[in-house]
Amino acid sequence: MNALWFLVTRRFLNSFKRAFNNPARTIGTLAVLALIAVTYGGPLFMQYREQPSPSMLSPFLPPLELIGSILTMMVGAYLLFSFALAVNSMQAFTEHDVLNLFPTPLPRKLVFQFLLFTRGLLASTLSILILAYFFFRTSRSLISVIHRSASLGSAISGSFTFAALFITANSALLIGGVCCGLAVFHKLLPKKLLWSLIIFVPASFLGGLLYRTLSSMDQGTEVLVQLLRRTNEQPFAMLLLPFRAIAASALIPYAGWTNTIPYGILIWGGLLVLCQRMLMSFAPSLYDYASDLAQANARRRERHRNQTFSVEAWMGRKEKRKSADGKYSRWMNAWAPTGATALFWRNLVMMRRSNIMLAIKANILLSALFYGGIAALRAWQPGIVEDGLIVLGGTAQFFVVFLFVAASVGWLTQTLKRFEIQKPLPVSPRNAVFAELLPIAAIVSCSSLIGIILLIALFPHLFGILLLGYVAISTSYMLMSCLLFIVLLFNPDQHDTLQRILFGFSTVIVIGLGALPSALTITLGYLLHLHLVVQGTILLMINGVCIYLLIALAAKRYESFNPVD
Amino acid sequence: MLTVSHLTKYYANLKAVDNLSFELQPGEIVGLLGPNGAGKTTTLRCICGILQPDDGAVSAGGFDLRRSERQAKQLMAFVPETPAPYDLLTVREHIKFIAMCYNTLDIYEAAVDDLLARFELKDKENEFSVTLSKGMKQKLMIACAFVHRATIFLFDEPMVGLDPKSQFTLKAELHRLRAEGASLLISTHQLDTAEKLCDRVIIMQQGKKISEGTLGELQQQATMKGNSLEEVFLRMTENRP
């Protein structure tokens, strides 16, 4: 056990040490840490200084019953997500573990569970506990004004019960997810059946809840409030009981100890014991499974690294390229560009095999569902307010961009792994960076076009505004990709805990910064009553200049980039 | 002593190792040869406990790997083909970590400086292993095999990536281990090295053992008296399904 703790702590401390070995990364690290401190530390500090008073009360704060329901749904969604991730816990094991740890005499159950705990459970639990901590600290004053003042004793017992119950539930579902993964590995459970259940069960629950709410609507009450209230009715209340118990434990300081909490302790405790026993029944093959996951992970990385542009193609020889899987479209095979365009071609070919394709499919599906829903709503209620729909459409497009930013992280990480093959090629760093970033932006633009065309078809009189929005989304995404790539160049090692944390935090900032020029231009254009064509031209120019400068900056860094630095 | 009996391992429907049996005596170096995909790495991974055999048994120093896993593993040291030390541990920390896993910190304390010097890692001892070259990583992985009381050494392509001097040092180490009574199983594609180094070789193809013995015995089996191991190996592995 000492060896395992040594491994975890040394790697964590060394990642800090490594961060401060590089001047550029030191500045970046300190900047992000300072931002975290200011963002969270400031309100926390003020919280200690200010006493709760009725003037601080928000008039929009929902009653405690609704807070409980919201928390229940959030906890349920989070735990379900954790379970789904655990089914395919590829990131929990690496080739380093397989080759260094598994041949040692350390008990395999201990090693397996330790890695699972430290890489999976601890990260998710810590994040939720930090969130819960801030939730308690920042909302305590508001809630305590409406209800009764929470005593220190109840706050401590509430926090303790919540943490214990949450960790138990998370552990049970994490181990349960791994057991399901093991059952699939041993062909005891069909993979398709498992994933169908993971999707079908919550979807049918939400569908049933929505149907019950819409079929017996009360006039004068918001749909969302009614939906949340229905969660207290049977059979939904029974199905949500385990999650409600966790939510109720979080509210102990304000609502006291409720009857659902002991049921929750029993359910989650029992499930944890059961899952643990199941895991132990797989004990002999735990390393086989972990090795398989680690190899699959390594293979995936290698696949991206190997599918690089061939030297022959680079030299401009038009030779017949046969596709590895016979799935490429004919025009992609027929097109044999040279120079920097060849990199663009290679990236398009490789992107077909990356998770960006999944994001594109999700985008098409979501767009069809969303805009189909709008069309149906308009047909049903012709007088519906258009502004609201436009705002919803805009929000949906923002989420699409967010989805693509998340999906392109993996792609950009692979870009850096190809640097050894790419750098000796006679292409300037600027062109190489541009060729790496352009395909993702092009795909996002094409993908977003579907949504915009559907919106224009629904609201033809808003053609100008929608087109402006489309230009803003496409160019903003390219801007975000440039920023993300620069952040990645400073934090290239995603196995390094600190670099991963900094990269994750920076991604949020990048999304904000990437959207800033477009948002400012559109706001100013609106305030100054500029014509949409003028607004679009200014927006294109500003974003274009920003992209040009950022690519130059990224190219400069890329030129001197060393992945082991 | 290492005993492998009727070892069988499947990857889905592929039989990677098929009913493999052999023994390793103390003070013996045995070469595990075979073309790519013959099942050498899988065999070594089954022996050292990374993979669970679907059938058969492995016994190290009289301890059955399935029933007395800890005792059996305590006697074995495994050096993988691809050196993969933990990126964010320094060279010295990585060696210490391995010693901690085997509960042999006393050996680490006594031998670490000598090991670092022997494998030319002294000036890199405080560097993160992510910054090491492939050859240096390989040296680190080999050094880790010497910080516990192993009597059975399993090497998967140990010479790959090593410079000539390091290869020479490693060969000297292997001879020293043999003289001390250790059992060594070495998987390699370098047939000239195997010919000079190994007392006996096992030739595998498509998961099966197709031949086993000293060079003389193999020459006899292949009716190629006086030929090199390379020629005998090529004859034995060609024209087989």
Question: Mind explaining what this structure looks like?
Answer:
- Chain A is an all-alpha fold.
- Chain A is 78% helix and 0% strand.
- Chain A has helices at 2-19, 23-49, 64-87, 95-101, 108-146, 152-185, 191-215, 223-230, 236-250, 252-255, 260-281, 286-306, 311-314, 330-334, 340-351, 356-380, 386-417, 419-422, 429-458, 463-490, 497-527, 532-559.
- Chain A is globular, with a radius of gyration of 26 Å.
- Mean pLDDT of chain A is 74; it is low at 54-60 and 306-325.
- Chain B has 241 residues and is an alpha/beta fold.
- Chain B has a domain at 1-26 and 33-70 and 185-241: P-loop containing nucleotide triphosphate hydrolases (Rossmann fold, 3-Layer(aba) Sandwich), CATH 3.40.50.300.
- A six-stranded mixed sheet of chain B has the order 6-7-8-3-9-10, sandwiched between helices. A four-stranded antiparallel sheet of chain B has the order 2-1-4-5.
- Classes of the chains: A mainly alpha (565), B alpha/beta (241).
Itemize the secondary structure elements and their pairings:
The complex is a heterodimer of chains A (565) and B (241).
Chain A: H1 2-19, H2 23-49, H3 64-87, H4 95-101, H5 108-146, H6 152-185, H7 191-215, H8 223-230, H9 236-250, H10 252-255, H11 260-281, H12 286-306, H13 311-314, H14 330-334, H15 340-351, H16 356-380, H17 386-417, H18 419-422, H19 429-458, H20 463-490, H21 497-527, H22 532-559
Helix pairs in contact in A: 2-5, 3-6, 3-9, 5-6, 6-9, 6-11, 7-8, 9-11, 15-19, 16-17, 16-19, 17-19, 17-20, 19-20, 19-22, 20-21, 20-22, 21-22
Chain B: E1 2-11, E2 14-24, E3 28-33, H1 40-47, E4 55-60, E5 63-64, H2 69-74, E6 76-79, H3 91-101, H4 105-118, H5 134-144, E7 152-156, H6 164-179, E8 183-187, H7 191-197, E9 200-205, E10 208-213, H8 215-221, H9 229-237
Parallel strand pairs in B: 3-8, 3-9, 6-7, 7-8
Antiparallel strand pairs in B: 1-2, 1-4, 4-5, 9-10
